[in-house]
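U., I forgot to send this yesterday:
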Amino acid sequence: MKITAEPITIAMQTPFRISRGSRTECHVVRVYIEHNGKQAQGECTPYPRYGESSESVLAQIQQAASSLEMAFERGMTDPEELRDHLQSSLTGGAARNAIDCALWDYQAQQNEQIFPNNLFELPTQIVTAMTVSIGTPEAMAIQARDYVANGAKLLKVKLDGEQVVDRVRAVREAAPEVKIVLDANEAWTGLNLEELFNQLTEFDIAMIEQPLPQQHDASLAHIKHPIPLCADESCHTSSQLSSLLGKYEMVNIKLDKTGGLTEALALAEEAQRLGFTLMSGCMLGTSLAMRAALPIAVQSEIVDLDGPVLLGQDVSPALTYRDGMIIL
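Result:
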C-alpha cells in the first residue's frame, strides 16, 4: 500500500463571499491510496478558520500515511482496522478526512464495488441547497432568481452583520416559493438577536446557522429563537454535542470538521439520539468530496452539498446537479 497526496487549486466560477471575506480560488488536498493496481481517492479542503493550510494538512497526511503503511506491512490489511488506526493516530480535521474517505473508497474497490453507492443505501436523488453569497440586496436577489429559474428548491443565504433584513427580504421576494435557510458564519455579534430573530419570522425561514462565534454559544441558551438554530463552527465531533443542548436544535455535519466519514457517522448517530436534527454540509470542493458525504446527506433534514456548482471545474466522473437536486 502506498499513500500519497497533492494540493490542487481550482478557480471559482464567480467570486464567492461569506462573512469572513471573498474567495476566487478553492484549495483542496487530494489523497491517493494505491494497492494491487488500483487507486482509491479522498479529498479535503483545509480551512484557515480552523488553523489549517494546504501545507499543514499535507504534513499531517505524510505523517499519518507513514504510520498506516507500516501498519499495513505488519499485516493490518482490513480497511476497517486501518480506519480505526487512523482515528487513534490523527485528530479530526481536513487531513484525516481525506485519508479516511480514501480508505472507504479502498474498501469498496477491494470488493469490486463503488463508494459510497454499494456500501450505503442511497436514493436516486437528493435535494441540495444552492448558495446565495453575500452582495447587495439586489445582487443577492438576482442570484436567487437565477437559482429558482434553474429548478432550485432550497436556498442557503450567506450573511454578515450588515443589512440582514434587507438582504433576506430581497431573496425571499425573488424566491417566494422555495425553502430558505440562513448562514451567518458567526457574524452576528453585537446585534440584538432576539429582535432580529423576530423580524426574520416574516420571511418563513427554515433555519439559521451559527449566528454567533463558538465561544459565545452560552448566550444562546437565554435568547428566544422562534426559528431553529444550527451549530456549524460549534460542532465538529460527537464529544461536543452535550454542550450544544438547549442552544441549538440542529447540527451541521461536515466531513472536513469531523475528520472523515467514520466520525461523521458516529456524530450523526449520537446527535439524533440526543434529539438534534441533522444538516449535511461541505466546504468548497469537488464531487469527490461531496460523494463521500452522501451517507450523511440521506439522514439529514437539510442538505448543502453544492460545492462543485460554485467551482470553475470538477472531477470526472462528476455528480450530476439538476433542478436543485443531486441525481444519483
